[in-house]
Amino acid sequence: MKNRISISSKLETFPNEIFFEIFDRLLPSDLYQAFYGLNTRLNTILNDSRMRFRDNISSLNSKEFHSYIQNILPQILNRLVSFTFGTYDTDEYQQASCFLHTYSIDLTHFQHLRTLVIIKMTISDVPIIQSAVIRLIHLVNLRLSVDSNDVGRLSVVNITNDLLLGSRLKHIKMDMCARIVFENINQISNIEQLSIVWCQLQELTHLLQYTPQLYTLKATISGLDNSQNWIENFPINFTQQYNLRLRSLKLVIDSILFDHLLLFLQQLTELRSLWLLLNHYEYMNVDKWENLFKSSLVKLDQLDLTIALMKPILPVQTILFSTPSLICEKFNTKFWFDRGWCAKLHEYDHCIRLIVLNNMISTIKRLKRQ
Known about the structure:
Organism: Adineta steineri
Domain F-box: 8-56
Radius of gyration: 26 Å
Helix content: 25-40%
Oligomer: single chain
Distance between the termini: 74 Å
Strand content: 15-25%
Number of strands: 13
Number of helices: 17
Order of helices and strands: HHHHEHEHEHEEHEEHEHHEHEHEHHHEEH
Shape: elongated
Protein name: F-box domain-containing protein
Largest sheet: 13 strands, mixed
Mean pLDDT: 88
Low-confidence stretches: 4-8
């Protein structure tokens, strides 16, 4: 009892600003367990409207989670600026489902939230999240992932304007484990950074028309449902027409014809950084790459191009692929060296990986010449 009184008297000497600084670095559950009820002044500080909290409850076990929702969250939800919920391991309990359905927590009450992360929700939860996000006027960062156990072969996630149109929303990461479609997007957003897993090329093209502020894009994309229609309606001078400012692009490509990919990339004339992971023999066509970089992506400086293939088995594959070392040599000519890029080849038991990326020595020499 004497120790408690001594500690309390010393704490009383600190100004409120010191407490705000200290409490800002601690999790709300720890704060309330350690300080709430210690004395009237600390209770007042903890409940002060100026207090802002950051919390991540994804590691709580089931008992801790239910206690948190009942005892801690009601006291802080309208003062949270960063919040993460949902568990990576869903075998124990479905935290996201408990949060959204068992307790029916209304995310729109998190009025000061700037960062929201939801881990392993279900596809059916997406509309709930979208309707809430549009009303979180301070939200800047949003990260969503769907539980793969909830995803079927033909599962589709429909993204609407509500998810993208937050007045301050800048950064979005979506790992839905299913195809994402943007066909209902028809309003301009302020998104600057976007990460998507996965969508089709025509969906991505449609989305870019409504994200003129997008600076960095990461996506896993696949082929086209109607390639002829996409080609016929693909806008000329895409970047200029939609005022795109896209500078950094990172794509994992699956089942897209090289010519279709080239048509898409040719329009992104403001690119400075390009990262591609490809998996087909036709992408070994060095002449097509050189033409792209000479005619369209002339501002590109950072390149990371990886073509990963299974080793040829059938005779026709051998003819198409030629000799891996010869292909690698074609990516190491003066054209590539002058841009500071060089190629290297990795061969495994069943896989060949050709990598073309920035070479520091070549880049330094090029900059000196400039």
